[in-house]
Amino acid sequence: MKAPLSLAHGLYPSSPGILHARTTMGSIRVHPHPGRNVLFGRAKRPEVDLSVGGDDQSVSRLHAEVTYRNHHWWLRNLGQQLVRLPRGQLMHTATDPIPLAEGYTPLFIRGSGYRQHLLELYVTGYDDDLQQRHNGTTIPPRKWHLNEVERLLLVVLGERYLLYEEGPRPLTYKQAEARLAYLRPADKWRSRTIEDRIEAVRHRLHAGGFPYPLLHDKDAGRPYDNNLLHNLLTGLVESTTLVPPDLDLLNSDLEGV
C-alpha cells in the first residue's frame, strides 16, 4: 500500500532527497522510500497523486510517473504526448527512465492548440535552504563580453531576435554585408570579414562555457546552414547580453569601426 503524500503549500525541504512537485492544480511533497511511486496526469486524486492539464484531453489521464529506487527519483513518460525536459530533451513512452538530478527540473506536456502544461519537480539536496533563498540576493544572468564592433555585427545579424519575433533566424553574411553597406557605407564591410569576426566570437564564448553549441562538428564537416549563428544569437539574447536598446546601433555612428 502506497504511503500517503503530504500536500505542500510551498517548496520547503526538511531533508535531502525529498521530491517536491507543483502544477497549477496544486503541489505535493514526497519523502524518498524505495519503491515509492508518484503519478501525474489529467485524472483526479486518488487515481493520480497530482493533476496536470486537468481540462485538456490531449494530456493522458496517467501521463508521467516518478519512482524512487537506487537512491534516485526516476522519471518515466506514460502518456501519448511527448514530455519535454530542459535543453529540448524529449521523452516518449519507449524512452528509458531518466534519473532526476538534485534541484529544479521543469517538465512540459504538450496540450491542445498552443497549450503547454508545466510540471515543476524539485529534488532537495544536502545544502538546500529554499526558505533562505526567498530573501537572498537576485542572481543576474551571465552576460558575455562583446566589444563595440562585435556588438554591431551581431545586432545586424540578429535584428529579428532583438525584436523578439517568433521563430527568428539570422541574416546571412551576404545579407549583413548589404545591410551594413546601406547603414555604414564608409566602413566597407565584406561578408568574409564579418564571418571571420563572428567565428572568433564563437570560439571565445565556447571556451568560456557558452550554453549552446558554437563550433562545427569536425567529423560531420562544415554545415550549410546558420544553426551555430542561431545558437549564438539565442544565447546572447536569453542572457540579456544583447537587448532591444542595442538596435539603436543601427541608427548611430561608432567611433573606430
TrEMBL record:
Keywords: Phosphoprotein. Pfam families: FHA (PF00498). Residues 38-90 form the FHA domain. It comes from Nonomuraea purpurea. This is FHA domain-containing protein. It comes from the Bacteria.
